[in-house]
Design a protein that fits this description.
Blueprint (H helix, E strand, L loop, with lengths): L4 E8 L4 E3 L4 H4 L3 H8 L3 E3 L7 H15 L9 E5 L10 H9 L6 E5 L5 H15 L4 E7 L21 E7 L4 E3 L3 E4 L7 E2 L7 E2 L1 H22 L9 E4 L4 H10 L21 H10 L6 E8 L3 E9 L8
Length: 316
């Protein structure tokens, strides 16, 4: 059985935007704060009738438009979300029905936020390898717009809606190495959303957690994979805000040109923020080694090293 890895990524960002510049006086902030600190000028907002399932379907359609996969070949379907829309049944089962996938396809949801994509890459790859599955789809869709309190300065200007669909299978573009994971559950209340309420986030605590934890975690990741910082072509951190990405870049003394930043026109899309950027890197053959690091709700984190495969080498 050949190595399971990332073959393609479909992306969907809703067309509607909420303009943060219209809220400057509400929160008594300058435009420079939006651009230099948050890094979010406008946020992508899903249409009122567009639920998590619809976001996933749109991301799948985008994948099909450039890297088609026959429906009857899908044997694993995983959805990462903490906002499924309805509680029962799981989104992946509804998606399975909507796509018309075969009955023997494995379907499950993973309830993780900003660390969700990286965690779930490891979960789906291991699951597929252990069970000889050939084509898996990993969806991320976590629309935060319905749970945001428009009057809350900590969250109202930050989050955007989006979805992605990653195709995993043999002969991949990127293979993963060993992962690193972590959780500080004692601080999990710093980012929380009770049953029927709005999201509440202690922005400073979440920022401090990432600044304290992620540099050491990435050193650990590189050690586990027997490589070093200089060998990495691209760093894709969870796009929590421009400020946290800039801070990690400084703390780790990274070359800023190697660090991805792309939230200005759609916002922090939770578990979709990393794959939205990774989709662009798939098309850039000179990007050979990529570090991914997701961190947030939980307070949890996960990091991974991706290595581009040589298309001419044989996979065993």
């Amino acid at each position: 059985m050949s190595t399971i890895g990332i073959k393609g990524i479909g992306c969907y960002i809703p067309e509607a935007r909420a303009n943060n510049a219209e809220r400057l006086s509400d929160f008594e902030i300058e435009e420079s704060f939006l651009i230099d600190k948050l890094g979010v000028r406008q946020r992508a907002i899903k249409a009122p009738g567009e639920d998590t399932l619809a976001l996933c379907l749109n991301a799948f359609e985008n994948l099909q438009s450039h890297a088609p996969l026959a429906i009857d070949q899908i044997d694993c379907l995983v959805v990462v979300t903490q906002n499924p829309g309805i509680r029962i049944p799981h989104v992946s089962a509804r998606l399975h029905g909507a796509l018309g996938v075969g009955e023997t396809c494995a379907c499950f949801d993973i309830s993780l936020g900003c660390s969700g994509y990286v965690y779930s890459l490891s979960a789906i790859e291991s699951f597929m390898s252990a069970n000889d599955l050939r084509n898996g789809l990993l969806f991320t869709a976590d629309p935060y717009s319905p749970i945001i309190d428009a009057a809350d300065k900590n969250t109202a200007l930050l989050f955007g809606d989006a979805a992605t669909c990653t195709h995993l299978g043999s002969d991949p573009v990127f293979e993963t190495g060993k992962f690193t994971f972590g959780t500080i559950g004692t601080e999990s209340a710093e980012l929380t959303c009770p049953g029927s309420g709005s999201l509440s986030m202690n922005g400073r605590a979440v920022f401090n957690f990432a600044a304290k934890t992620i540099p050491g975690d990435i050193r650990n990741l590189l050690e586990r994979n027997q490589t070093d910082l200089a060998a990495i072509d691209r760093f894709i951190f969870h796009q929590g805000s421009k400020y946290i990405v800039d801070t990690l870049t400084k703390l780790m003394r990274l070359d800023p040109s190697k660090v991805a930043l792309d939230i200005l026109d759609y916002g922090n899309t939770v578990s979709s923020s990393i794959p939205l950027i990774l989709a662009q890197e798939l098309e850039r053959p000179h990007i050979r080694r990529v570090v991914l690091s997701g961190f947030g709700a939980g307070l949890s984190w996960a990091s991974a090293l991706l290595t581009r495969t040589d298309p001419h080498a044989s996979h065993h």
